[in-house]
Amino acid sequence: MAAPHRIDVHHHFVPQIYKDALIALGSACPEPGYQPPIANWTVERSLDQMDAAGIASAIVSVTTPGIHFGNDAAARNLARQCNDAGARMMQDRPQRFGLFAALPLPDIDASLEEIGYALDQLKADGIGLYTDYESGGVKFLGDATFAPILDELNRRQTLVFVHPTSCICCSRLQPGIADAIIEYGTDTTRTIASLVFGGAAARYPNISWIFCHAGGTMPYLIQRFIDFSGRDTGAMKAAMPQGLMHELTRFYYDLAQTAHPGPVAALRKIIPNSHILFGTDYPYGAGCADQVKQIAACGFSAAELAAVDRANALTLLPRFA
Amino acid sequence: MAALTRIDVHHHFVPPAYKAEMNKKRPMQPVMQSWTIQNSIDDMDKAGTQIALVSITTPGLWFGHVEEARRLSRVCNDFGMEMIRNHPGRFGLFAAIPWPDVEGSLKEVEYALDTLKADGICMFTSYGDRWLGHADFNPLFEELNRRKAIVYVHPHAAACCIDLIPEVNESVIEYGTDTTRAINSMIFTGASTRYPNIQWIWSHAGGTMPFLIERMVNLAKIPQVAAKLPNGLMHELKRFYYDTAQASNGVALGALKQVAGASQIVFGTDYPYRLSIEHVEGVAGAGLSRDEMIGIDHRNALRLLPNLATLIKA
User: If you write DSSP's letter for every residue of B83-102 in order, what string do you get?
Assistant: First the structure.
């Protein structure tokens, strides 16, 4: 087997404090809840998966349902303890693990404090956000509510990993069809739309954005995006002075849970290969080695695949070189 | 004028009596206000469309009142039939029904298919918090299955998903997503397998379904889910038809082709929201073979509507 070389930008860790938090929520826990992939996670299992799939480094993040369950103080504590746990994984194995630190959003002040702590003290590799938060209704990332956060992340030229969640609008809509099937991908599309059409993407050019799952469903809806961007040219020009495609093509997209030739071909028609990243969604999905196999069947050339596996991520995460 | 070789399965009409009633609730959009039969025909002529199967679009006709919905369905269907009679060979009809009024819908199905000889039935992707696989629809789908009917499914923003993002119209994301929900509902409740004689046309290249295929494939691997799909997930996805409206580009059609096969793609325009010619040009630039494009223009639709074959002189 080739030496481990892949960089997995979409890899979850589940510290005990996080397991405890979901268990305490019990049946009130939002989807996906305290499921076996969460319950069974250990650092050793992550490392075994990485070894089996040739993954040199994984940048870990807390998965959905996220950090905030209605209590600001509890969220602040949970974010801090998860970040400290992630930092310990980095200290123990600096080349194997990186960290996208969690924030106690929608608590803005506490999140600004956690950004400073995570990036300055813990030397986290970036910040993990979710696609939407409840703060007087559903708010997507382009909403003015988050301007202080994006200002700060822009000032620090931060790498931001945006993970989907079940929007409160759309959780448990249909029995037997988990939110993950349709709603996660859709929520990524919504937050991308919020960022580009609301102007935040252009306003904060120093943030590097990674969106999960090949952009949710955005590439498939590209004609709708393009047509909409041409509707009200005055407002659209103000929101995106360099145009829609400039913003969409500067974002990065991971391949977790989308490694099928159809969607991957669609993504590659609008996004340059240099902005496509390897990701697994471990401990969700069919395993890291399976993801490697699936991606190999998606029509990449050897050179393109090498870039997706490692080189593209290194431009964002040079410390893993 | 170019030869008329296309069959447009996604083309809207705005019956004047329907428009008048909608305007009393909330003024319809400018493209709806200005629709006329002649504008439709001009648009079709420019795009080489022989026949457009017309359907009503959002806001539909269910506003909580059974009698109103029954009356509006009848008004729309009768107007559609008048268009068909007055312009032979240019129009077909996907008839409206007053769902969720079960009794009224069954009556309108009978009237539309037996008396008017409509080409199929038009439904929306969801009604309130019910998507098409919900057990509520069983009596209707049993009847439509018995009749081997075509069901053309049009999306709207589901009740869950209105006004989510201030800067973004619902047609950008929510319409496509609701088609995906309806497809998943049909498949994973087992309704698609239970009603194998209904022929489904999904709008807008399946909404976003082809992009989420990996998620669906993994769901279908769970044993209790697989038990509801005796022919497998892909069998169901590959028997549906998908139109090109607002998705006439290589990104969407390329992915759709890989998931469902080019033989399942049918020409659709969403006129008057978009022009038909845009879709002709879009399909031409989507990287499809000439044979695949002929399939999209009319050959695939003729498998659904074989009685239209005499109209197409390609």
Answer: HHHHSTTTEEEEE---TT-H
**Which of B161, B213, B252 comes nearest A223 by C-beta?**
B252
Domains, chain A, ordered by start: 6-320 (3.20.20.140)
> How close, in Å, is residue B210 to chain A by CA atoms?
7
Count of residues making up chain B? 314
Range of the domain at B287: 6-311
Closest listed residue to residue A164, CA positions, set B215, B217, B258 = B215
C-beta atoms surrounding B281 within 10 Å: 13
CATH number at residue B80: 3.20.20.140
B249 contact residues in A (CB cutoff 8 A): 222-223
Helix, strand, coil fractions of chain A, as percent rounded to 5:
50, 15, 35
The count of CB pairs under 8 A between chains A and B is 163
Q: Which residue has the tokens 């080739």?
A: A2
CB contacts of B212 in chain A (<8 Å) are 181-182, 185, 217, 263
Rounded-to-10 torsion of CA B230, B231, B233, B235: -160
Are B105 and B81 in contact by the 8 Å Cβ rule? The answer is no
ipTM value for the complex:
0.95
Q: Confirm whether B252 is domain-assigned.
A: yes
Which residue is closest to A169 within chain B, CA to CA? B160
Asked whether residue B1 is assigned to any structural domain, the reply reads no
A110-153 confidence digits (pLDDT tens): 999 999 999 999 999 999 999 999 999 999 999 999 999 999 99
Q: How confident is chain B (314 residues) per 10-residue block, as mean pLDDT? A: 89 97 95 97 98 96 97 98 98 98 98 98 97 98 98 96 95 97 98 98 98 97 96 98 98 97 98 97 98 98 97 80
DSSP string, A250-295: HSEEE-TT--SHHHHHHHHHHS-GGGEE----BTSSS-HHHHHHHH
Kindly determine whether residue A217 and residue B211, on different chains, have CB atoms separated by under 8 Å: yes
Provide the domain count of chain B: 1
**pTM exceeds 0.90 for this model:** yes
Shortest alpha-carbon distance between residue B251 and chain A (Å): 4
Phi, psi of A38, rounded to the nearest 5 degrees: -75, -50
- Encode pLDDT of A72-86 as tens digits: 999 999 999 999 999
Please tell me which residue of chain B has the smallest CA distance to A185. Answer: B212
Q: Which residues contact A183 (CB under 8 A, 6 or more apart)?
A: A164, A166, A167, A170, A171, A173
